[in-house]
Write a structure and sequence with these properties.
The complex is a heterodimer. Chain A is of the alpha/beta class. In chain A, 31% of the residues lie in helices and 16% in strands. Chain A is built from 20 helices and 21 strands. The chains are: A alpha/beta, B alpha+beta. Chains A and B meet through helix 11 and helix 12 of A and helix 3, helix 4, helix 5, helix 6 and helix 9 of B. Chain A: Pathway: Protein modification; protein ubiquitination.
Chain lengths: 588, 327
């Protein structure tokens, strides 16, 4: 049986056709030429299933590889099937690792992949990694093995230090993109930036905003000055306002800017200079950073905001008044990330100033409720939904919500594709009626027919999951925490939701019956995560025994009785059980 | 003094809006005339962070177990477990202790339905946070609470590791691992009040900055930590709450609950009321609060005084330039 790399089709055998294959109407070269124009993963997957010669033509013409779960397939299998890959996207750890729910050395190390790529894909140009462990050794291997290497993205990765980055900077002569997004690593010094050679000028994307290091500003300025094609520059907070001004003077063509620290004592002259530097950036579409910006300095930005489509204020805690004033200058905003210090009042201003808004993410300033700050409530969300009818993506952290509000919100904005509502106190009911939030999510799945991603919260009974199973026909990702009443809830989801790919559950009363009810479904999904539920080792073993094509991995917490399966990770794989599992990961 | 301490009224005022866990409300040795016994008793009645009935934060582990062991004998059903979890994770403001009692109602109705299903499954027990049935709870609970404690401890250790440079708020309340689902790099930027950058002159970025606050006509002073506020509006509202018992007039009445003021608004407000907020700077001069950027103010402020408006006429506002030339 041939493996299928694509996410979207079941792992069935691709080649079991009739006794003889009819002659193809056109030669392979033509077929390959035609297929080389197909980019979409889904289409390529469909193509490969048609017949054997199509399968072969497809594999020879595929240049972009997407592996959503690095353990679902092995480097050897990939290398055998696809001989001509130029771009690889690899994702590793389950998403809950972002919230410290996985021990450090769980796995997803990219090294074995790089070793294989170095052998088989010498012309590799792009590598995009998400939630993977990347060591300096791997970065050095990468830097030295691929002479045409152009683009590196490390999103939420860990394991590297500046030595690895130095290798990249020194050896990748054709580098166009170096993007270190949200990768948190404390061991990085800033020396790597100075390792770009003096004649190196091809950079188009540079993002080191999440790195905690100080780079040499002189070297940065020179680098920015000679990279005339630079369109994305996101610096970290070691860069001051005045330094930023100098960078902007070199690169007014920037389309995406992440500023450094926005807090500095400026003379009136400096203030004017930076104001005009911003005004000269006429192509700016994305703005982020702005650490410690206050109402005093935000106005310097105004001149650059006219063409802004994405404003990321998730690193600066603004108050509603300064936020409202800023928004007036951003009428074309499509995406906004903001901290809840702007409160409902700020969101009202958003509703009136930015009618084109499609995505809103509101992060909590006080997630553990230490300072008793109010944050945002259902009123803010309502206000946005009234003014921004095109809303399709929302991530909303709040302390209170009502069913009625959510019903109205989705009536105002029925086009939601991503609805992630996080009522921060687990199991909290509708604060007005004290009832479960079932009706809220019922409204979401009934009204938003295009819904692909849903995160639920608050007090929820099995009813919510009945609704989800019944109505959420396009749902691909579901996140559940502290919800449900019994196995029935999870069963409803597993029996409904035809397009479900990722299911992550924590602290819910779902047990073995629920787990086992989805056994066939898991082969059509990327993965299932269940932690702190009522699943036991016995149930997991049963699942593993019945479904050999699934990997069932359990991590037990210390000091628990042996029957409990505390963290369960189930995923389909053609590569068999992990060979690099650390001792605390039990593969059943 | 080396250890920051707080003096608190005898239940006359609420605790500060921004309160760190490490700031235990300790009786000061200089609080003369107050019996030790009465102070301790009054602590019981104070509104504080922590589970209701908890003496201090070190004992929260013990409280957690007792909450399960003791209270659950009184009530039954899933409701209490969920309610307990709620109070556990939220740190139990008074409002949530009400929710615990209230939750018993809906909890029971839910468990009514699911108990039927319980019979069908053979391996189900060891509840985690959300309990299943009455008869299973007692046997599993000690284990459960131990689990929760260990995961809580792990969180706290992790929190403390993450609270490196400049973060003045150490992990305090019992928290559930990974909840709310926020990335760790966000937690670090958001919760801190002190700036990290050494670009701003004279910033240490850590520790606390206690200054005395006096008010004309008040029998005793207060102390506040300037580091816990980010702007004049927060300071103003904190002082308002602290001294509201003494104001006959409408000090700060213009501050409607949710509003945040910019620095320029603060001055308008103070001018409208009977009282004026002033501070003594490094040079020993008494200045009007609100003229200079917040950072500069916290740098130079030695103590605060709430004066009657009529007494403050002599204070002239200084421009930023003048202050800068002094520094």
């Amino acid at each position: 049986m041939d493996p299928d790399q694509s996410e979207d089709s079941p792992s069935n055998s691709a080649n079991s056709h009739g006794p003889t294959q009819p002659q193809s109407p056109f030669p392979d070269e033509v077929l390959e030429k035609v297929l080389s124009f197909i980019d979409s993963r889904k289409d390529r997957s469909s193509v490969s299933l048609v017949r054997k010669d199509w399968y072969n033509a497809e594999r020879w013409t595929r240049s972009k590889l997407f592996i959503g779960n690095c353990y679902s397939v092995s480097p050897e299998i990939v290398a055998r099937r696809f001989p001509r890959i130029k771009s690889v996207t690899l994702k590793g750890k389950p998403r809950f690792s972002d919230f410290n729910m996985l021990p450090r050395d769980w796995g997803a190390n990219v090294h074995s992949w790089l070793v294989m790529f170095a052998k088989v894909y010498p012309f590799l140009e792009e590598l995009r990694l998400k939630r993977m462990t990347v060591t300096d050794e791997s970065l050095e291997l990468l830097a030295k093995s691929f002479p045409r290497f152009k683009a590196l993205t490390l999103s939420s990765c860990d394991g590297f230090s500046d030595n690895g980055l130095k290798a990249i900077a020194s050896h990748c002569r054709n580098l166009t993109e170096l993007d270190i997004q949200d990768s948190v690593t404390d061991d990085v010094g800033g020396g790597w930036l100075s390792c770009f050679p003096e004649n190196f000028a091809s950079l188009e994307v540079l993002n080191f905003s999440s790195l905690n290091c100080e780079v040499s500003f002189d070297d940065l300025e020179r680098l920015v000055g000679r990279c005339k094609s630079l369109r994305v520059l996101k610096v970290n907070d070691s860069i001051t306002l005045d330094q930023l001004r100098r960078l902007l003077v070199h690169a007014p063509q920037l389309m995406e800017l992440g500023t450094g620290s926005f807090m500095q004592e400026l003379t009136p002259r400096q203030y004017e200079d930076i104001e005009s530097a911003f005004s000269n950036c006429r192509n700016l579409q994305v703005l982020s950073g702005l650490w410690e910006a206050t109402s005093l300095y935000l106005p310097v930005l105004y001149g650059a905001c006219a063409s802004l489509t994405f404003l990321n204020l998730s690193d600066v805690a603004l108050q509603s008044s300064e936020f409202a004033k800023l928004l007036v200058h951003c009428p074309n905003l499509r995406r906004l990330w903001v901290i809840d210090t702007v409160e409902d009042k700020g969101l009202e201003a958003l509703g009136s100033s930015c009618p084109l808004l499609e995505e809103l993410r509101v992060f909590p300033s006080d997630p553990y409720d230490r300072h008793h700050r109010d944050g945002v409530t259902e009123l803010g969300f309502l206000a946005v939904s009234r003014g921004c009818r095109k809303l399709r993506y929302v991530l909303y952290f709040c302390r209170r919500m009502t069913n009625a509000a959510v019903v109205t919100i989705v009536q105002n904005c029925p086009d939601f594709t991503h609805f992630r509502l996080c009522i921060m106190t687990p199991g909290q009911p509708d604060y007005l009626t004290n009832e479960p939030m079932d009706e809220a999510f019922a409204a979401v799945v009934k009204t938003c027919t295009k819904l692909k991603r849903l995160s639920v919260s608050g007090l929820l009974t099995d009813l919510t999951f009945e609704y989800i199973g019944k109505y959420a026909k396009n749902l691909e990702t579901l996140s559940v925490a502290f919800a449900g009443s019994s196995d029935w809830g999870m069963q409803c989801v597993l029996e409904g939701c035809p397009k479900l790919r990722k299911l992550e559950i924590r602290d819910c009363p779902f047990g073995n019956a629920a787990l086992l009810s989805g056994r066939e479904k898991y082969e059509m999904m990327r993965s299932l995560w269940m932690s702190s539920c009522n699943v036991t080792m016995k149930g997991c073993r049963l699942l593993a025994r019945e479904m050999p094509r699934l990997n069932v991995e359990v991590i037990k917490d210390e000091g628990n009785d042996d029957g409990q399966a505390d963290r369960v990770y189930v995923y389909r794989s053609v590569a068999g059980p992990r060979r690099d599992a650390p001792p605390f990961v039990l593969t059943l | 003094m080396s250890i920051p301490q707080e003096h608190d009224y005898i239940g006359l005022s609420e605790p500060l809006p921004v309160e760190k866990s490490s700031d235990k409300i300790l009786p000061s040795s200089s609080a003369s005339g107050i019996e030790k016994n009465s102070v301790l008793n009054l602590r019981e009645t104070e509104l504080r962070l922590g589970l209701p009935g908890s003496e201090s934060l070190e004992r929260k582990a013990g409280n957690w177990v007792s909450l399960f062991g003791k209270d659950l004998k009184d009530e039954s059903g899933n409701g209490l477990c969920q309610g307990s979890l709620k109070s556990f994770v939220s740190g139990a403001k008074r409002g949530f202790s009400d929710a615990i009692n209230g939750s018993g109602k809906w909890g029971l109705s839910i468990s009514g339905g699911s108990e039927v299903d319980l019979g069908k499954n053979d391996v189900l027990f060891s509840p985690r946070g959300v309990c299943k049935g009455n008869n299973t709870m007692q046997s599993c609970l000690p284990g459960t609470s131990v689990k929760e404690i260990s995961s809580v401890k792990a969180v706290e250790e992790e929190e403390e590791k993450k609270n490196e440079s400049g973060n003045t708020a150490p992990a305090s309340k019992a928290q559930v691992v990974g909840w709310p689902p926020i990335r760790s790099f966000r937690k670090n930027t958001l919760a801190t009040n002190s700036p990290k950058n050494s670009e701003v002159a004279g910033k240490s970025g850590s520790g606390c900055l206690y200054v005395k606050v006096s008010m004309e006509g008040a029998p005793y002073l207060r102390k506040i930590d300037l580091k816990t506020y980010r702007c004049y509006a927060e300071l103003s509202s904190a002082l308002e709450k602290m001294f509201s018992c003494f104001t006959i007039g409408q000090y700060g009445q213009g501050l409607a609950g949710q509003e945040r003021l910019s620095e320029s608004h603060l001055m308008d407000l103070l001018h409208g009321s009977e009282y004026v907020l002033t501070y003594e700077d490094k040079d020993g001069d008494w200045m009007l609060v609100g003229d200079v950027p917040w950072e500069m103010f916290t740098d130079s402020c030695k103590r605060l005084r709430i004066m009657k408006g009529s007494d403050a006429i002599g204070l002239a506002p200084r421009t930023m330039q003048k202050c800068k030339s002094q520094n």
